[in-house]
Amino acid sequence: MLQDQAFLRIPGPTPIPPSVQHAMTQPMIGHRGREAKELIQKLRPRLKPVFGTEQEIMIVAGSGTAGLEAAVVNSAKPGDEVLVIATGAFGHRFKKICNSYDYQTHVIEVSWGSAADPAEIEEYLRQHPNIKVVFSTFCETSTGVLNPVRQIGEIVHRTSNALFVVDGVSCIGGVESKMDDWGIDVLVTGSQKAMMLPAGLTLIAVSERALRTMKENPQPRFYLDLTTYHDKLLADSTPFTPALSLLFGLNQVLNLMEEEGIDNVVKRHETMKSMTRAACRALGLPLLTLDQDASPTVTAIQPDDFDPEKLRSILKTEFGLSIAGGQQHLKGKIFRIGHMGYSSPADVLQTISLLELGLYKTGKQIELGKGVAAAQTVYTEHENRRN
Amino acid sequence: MLQDQAFLRIPGPTPIPPSVQHAMTQPMIGHRGREAKELIQKLRPRLKPVFGTEQEIMIVAGSGTAGLEAAVVNSAKPGDEVLVIATGAFGHRFKKICNSYDYQTHVIEVSWGSAADPAEIEEYLRQHPNIKVVFSTFCETSTGVLNPVRQIGEIVHRTSNALFVVDGVSCIGGVESKMDDWGIDVLVTGSQKAMMLPAGLTLIAVSERALRTMKENPQPRFYLDLTTYHDKLLADSTPFTPALSLLFGLNQVLNLMEEEGIDNVVKRHETMKSMTRAACRALGLPLLTLDQDASPTVTAIQPDDFDPEKLRSILKTEFGLSIAGGQQHLKGKIFRIGHMGYSSPADVLQTISLLELGLYKTGKQIELGKGVAAAQTVYTEHENRRN
Lengths: 387, 387
Known about the structure:
- 2 copies of one chain form a homodimer.
- By secondary structure, chain A is α/β, with parallel strands linked by helices.
- Chain A has 2 domains: 7-13 and 261-386, Aspartate Aminotransferase, domain 1 (Alpha-Beta Complex); 18-258, 3-Layer(aba) Sandwich (Aspartate Aminotransferase, domain 2), CATH 3.40.640.
- The first copy, chain A, contains 13 helices and 14 strands.
- In chain A, the strands form 4 sheets. A 7-stranded mixed sheet of chain A has the order 2-10-9-8-5-3-4, with helices on both faces.
- In chain A, strand 3 (81-86), helix 4 (89-99) and strand 4 form a beta-alpha-beta unit.
- The longest helix of chain A is centred in the last third of the chain and has 21 residues, at 262-282.
- The two termini of chain A are 39 Å apart.
- In chain A, 56% of the residues are buried.
- At the A-B interface, helix 1, helix 3 and helix 9 of A face helix 1, helix 3 and helix 9 of B.
- Chains A, B: Residues 28-328 form the Aminotransferase class V domain.
- Chains A, B: InterPro entries: Aminotrans_V_dom, Aminotrans_V_PyrdxlP_BS, PyrdxlP-dep_Trfase, PyrdxlP-dep_Trfase_major, PyrdxlP-dep_Trfase_small, SP_NH2Trfase/AEP_transaminase.
- Chains A, B: Belongs to the class-V pyridoxal-phosphate-dependent aminotransferase family.
- Chains A, B: Pfam families: Aminotran_5.
- Chains A, B: Its cofactor is pyridoxal 5'-phosphate.
């Protein structure tokens, strides 16, 4: 295989655009000087349309999990009843975080590959009127499910006074997000997925009512105290040294998103999802999720006639193509293709063409080119629809 | 002034070496694949001599303060008596973190600009035999003091069973560090100081006995639970998505340190300190700290006949040279010159030559070139001593 060539098609970390790489290598600056202040001032309003909010988006140095923990320890008081809607590995992460603290944690377990059912949540909230915070994953990375957070938000507010906290790590920047309209109180994302950056930043938007709760919350916390980030952000600053090189990159990411138009970014991801799913169907690859539950950023396939680990190994060794395996009990049973961030329909076509060769080499009976053709057809249909 | 030229001589963030910038822009990789594992495997043994330990160094995505909080919440149990030795703004940060949790926090306040007095600490520990953890800053960035952590460590272990936790954020990688020999139980640093990287990583070394305490510590924590980082590190992995671009950079930082030799890195910082202090004396600039208390990484000057903010403004505007002001009650009263990480005697000479021009423009009566000559003399003396 051609040396020094690699195709990263896992559901994050994702490839970094060259102009973003370049932006991140600008000479370092002081974190309390005019340039840093101006940079944060420039970022603040431009993050809002990505989240679909008028509220401030806090910028914290850390992994996505730091953002999830910040959401938990700022929203819930010790002793609170909280509800975690778990549709996969990242729903379970919310559960583990809650279990590390003094909360009464309820969990609705949803079978992996399915989306949460709003009616079940409504019923649960009616039966447990003391729940103070509801946690849901938006895109469940481990299964490629996009949960109906709009409907869940509507139900949470209709049936309770709970805060509604959403993990958008593997989709914000790639899917439609209307945080304010949908009644999301806390929305978290990470830098290394649809935001096209290396890992190391977590971005957290907070509603006014959630901020009021956070200001009165006695839960001990320091580095992850979002109220201090909020106070400093209003002065275009941060409480602790910001990850400046990632902020340089974030500025260029927002340039790219604005040039394309955020609506077009969302449509591009929809197209990539539909292309990938059509190709899988054409190749006889069973999809883990229903169309109505499928995320625009990642697609999971559950083959019944070959070992997905063997396929992954061939693709990696022969072409430098990385796709993801399954997590926890789906390990060895599924594979996942990421199509988010710095990823285009052209990349999807390449991925599918290599996937076909990989399938051929595992011994699976397929018609070469058939998946690509199906994806091409979807592409032209989406193109026509837009024009 | 020449456009696009800037000299960052604050005590962190510090300039990034070009080869480190380059390393950080390598194409993104999967965080759970072979390359990431090999990278972490390569980093682990090579961090040890920088800290002066045989123990593992945990790599956490976050600011230095995340590392300090990790040190606190892993070392101290709820209800514990702890002692903070506060010699400046970053000693106070330890205090603030401790005050956010359920600890009985004792504080020894040391006047800003002086180092901690080991005899006073010994006396304090004898009077308070229930103290379980002692927190000290190594280099106090706000004053340019290097605290005698070797002597403090010796005293902590002689007079108590407390863990000894050290904030080495603004000096590790630039000063001699013998964590194991000096009895340091937890040693923390950040990426954006002498480690020559952008902010966003905190590195935390933990002694065996501290690790045992951490494993039994019921203090609630999740993202900052160092026992999970330790478990994963032994398998060349991390519990949460690592800040991979910074790890690419860290690998190259270690290449640079190994090429120079860590002993030589330490000597270079000693030389830069002595050059800076000699120049200040030659120019009649009062140093905030005594020679015996001075840090090799940052020097603070407390002028009595001009406004340091005016000097800083001239240097920034005319030459693009950033030096730091004072923090908290020293704001407007001192200025600080950083000389750490990607900084050489040649850079110190340039900084002093510009400082002289700046002083001249503030109206201070100085003999141009006199500070540079004093620094040059120190340089040649140090050179001769080494040969």
